[in-house]
Amino acid sequence: QLSLETVNLEKLETEFRPSATAAKLPLIAGVAVGIGVLGVGGYFFANWVNSQRDSAKAAKFSKMVEAAQAEERAGNFTNALERYQAAQKLRPDNSEVRNKVEAVKPKAAAQVKQAEAAARAAAQAAAQAVEEFQQVVTAARGYEKAGNFTNALERYEAAQHLRPEDTEVRNKVAAVKPKAAAQVTQAEAAASAAARAAAEFQQVMTAARGYEQAGNFTNALERYEAALNLRPEDTEVRNKVAAMKPKAAAQVTQAEAAASA
Fold first, then answer.
1. Torsional class of 75: left (φ above 0), alpha (ψ -120 to 50), beta (otherwise)
2. Proportion of the chain above pLDDT 70, given as a percent
3. Which of 130, 78, 120, 133 is nearest to 101 (CA)?
4. Which of 22, 79, 145, 226 could link 18 by a cystine bridge, Cβ 3.0 to 4.6 Å?
């Protein structure tokens, strides 16, 4: 029988103690299993990430192609080409998109040329409009400076038609309107007076010719002189006065002689 006294505990501990390597075997095994699990999990995770990325890329590709097709149907070939080329970058191997790019390219180029031509035409028209506006305003200012408010108003209103938003021209129209109206009134009054003067002149001339035809040179001279007062610049009337004077004088002499006899 053994007793605690006869058993060498230190010897037994030494004999039955596991080696350092054996003691680490569970840890090593655990680490190995963990690495294996991580490796398998990482593989599946990487596949999942790639799958998500491919799905997103496919969705983006589809949206880009749909947008390109919509632009193409609308006749906007420039934008359509831009969308098709963006889709082609996502999938360079897609033959359908590649064919679309080649088909839309000449249409987009023609559209760009048309837009450029339209822009040049618009710029030219705008330049011409500016030049026309300046010419009309310059003419209006010239008439206004000369006191011809009727013509000035006409030009300012033409300028306002070209640029309705121009405040300066709008103010000019408002300022010149009453002056032009007054000028029209004056012109109408002058025209009326001229018409009356013309009628009076014709009446006097008709009377003068009648007296001259009847041989009454004294009265004829009187009427011709009245007509000359109405139109001092009239050469015909001045000549008539000059021709009547000696005849009227002779007639006066004859009348005086007859009276004295």
1. left
2. 84
3. 78
4. 22
HEC secondary structure over 11-29: HHHHHHCCCHHHHHHHHHH
Cα(152)–Cα(144) distance, integer angstroms: 5
What's the pTM? 0.51
> Is 137 in a helix, a strand, or coil?
helix
Q: Is-contact 80 104, C-beta < 8 A?
A: yes
> For 74-164, where are the alpha helices, taking DSSP H only?
77-90, 95-145, 149-162
CB 217 within 8 A of CB 211: yes
Mean pLDDT for the stretch of residues 52-79: 93
**What span, in angstroms and rounded, lies between the C-alpha atoms of 132 and 126?**
10
- pLDDT tens across 146-164, in order? 999 999 999 999 999 999 9
Q: How confident is the model over 74-95, as pLDDT tens digits? A: 999 999 999 999 999 999 999 9
Tokens of 49: 């990430």
CB 223 within 8 A of CB 202: no
152-160 own/partner pairs: CB under 8 Å, 24+ apart:
152/176, 152/180, 153/177, 153/179, 153/180, 159/133
Q: What is the C-alpha to C-alpha distance for residues 128 and 148, in angstroms, rounded to an integer? A: 27
Enclosing H/E stretch for 48: helix 20-73
Q: How far apart are CA 225 and CA 192, in angstroms?
A: 24
